[in-house]
Amino acid sequence: MSELDEKAQRIVDARMRLRERFLDKIKQSPAQADERPMGTGEANRHGMPKLPPGQHESKSWPILDLGVKPEIPLEQWSLKIDGAVEQSVTLDWAQLMALPQVELAADFHCVTAWSLMDSTWRGVPFSTVVALAGVKPDATHVMTYAYDGYTTNVPLEEALKDDVLLVHHWNGKPLPRDHGGPLRMITPQLYAWKGAKWINRIELLTRDRKGFWEVRGYSNSAHPWRDDRYS
Ligand SMILES: Nc1nc2c(c(=O)[nH]1)N[C@H]1C(S)=C(S)[C@@H](COP(=O)(O)O)O[C@H]1N2
Ligand SMILES: [Mo]
């Protein structure tokens, strides 16, 4: 194995150990725990009905944000992982791209009732990036921050699911700035507001704290198959 392959293998192993710590919670968190989830259509890749209740399919991809679309040149871009971690880490673009990359198909459900189906996403699993920093045993939640000032929170077991990615490509093309490029998070098993566009910081928390929309009345848990939109 080359030095680079060995490094990649160490990162992948660390990610697996981290996910193992949370595997029971991951399995029991809402998507898997619902015996009769709401919605219609064939099962999607994580076993939920393709279309969550109250959603309709959108053929185009709407743009929703706070109106500020930060432009971050790649040479100035960075992502910080801190909080309840063994060691804070700040990645530059080249370091992010040197991590093991994955590609998967997933749907995208916005709380305003549209769903974008069957996108192909390419990026780095959230769990890979936080494994680099080493997650402390008492970490339970995550706050993500973005270049436009947006924040959103998720339980760690939701964030560690295999389809939660930090993505830089959508359907084979670089992620457009309007949709959070160069890098955004996606949370296919939660409403899309849980995925920060233009992400620049991941803070591990030892107790839950609410993000931008969560303090303004959106659901803290945001589970599409429970029609879980507002708190
Ligand atoms: N940085 C940032 N991320 C964000 C938002 C935002 O305003 N700023 N809006 C959220 C909301 S409410 C939704 S529905 C999705 C929309 O993503 P899109 O514009 O790519 O469709 O991004 C989420 N992530
Ligand atoms: Mo939204």
How would you characterize this protein structure?
- This protein is α+β, with helices and mostly antiparallel strands and 231 residues long.
- The protein has a single domain, classed as Sulfite Oxidase, Chain A, domain 2 (Alpha-Beta Complex).
- It has helices spanning 3-28, 30-33, 93-97, 126-133, 156-159; strands spanning 40-43, 49-51, 56-57, 78-83, 89-92, 102-109, 114-125, 141-146, 151-155, 165-170, 173-174, 184-186, 199-205.
- Strands 3, 6, 7, 10, 11 and 12 form a six-stranded mixed sheet that branches. Strands 5-4-13-8-9 form a five-stranded mixed sheet.
- The chain is globular and about 50 Å long.
- The protein binds ligand MTE and molybdenum atom.
- Ligand MTE binds next to loops.
What are the main properties of this structure?
Sulfite Oxidase, Chain A, domain 2; binds molybdenum atom; binds the ligand Nc1nc2c(c(=O)[nH]1)N[C@H]1C(S)=C(S)[C@@H](COP(=O)(O)O)O[C@H]1N2; 231 residues; five-stranded mixed β-sheet; alpha+beta
Residues in helix, %? 10-25%
Provide the gyration radius in Å.
17 Å
Beta-strand portion reads 25-35%
- Provide the low-confidence segments as ranges: none
Number of contiguous helices = 5
Short description:
The chain is of the alpha+beta class and 231 residues long. The protein has helices at 3-28, 30-33, 93-97, 126-133, 156-159, and strands at residues 40-43, 49-51, 56-57, 78-83, 89-92, 102-109, 114-125, 141-146, 151-155, 165-170, 173-174, 184-186, 199-205. Molybdenum atom is lined by residues 64, 110-112, 192-193.
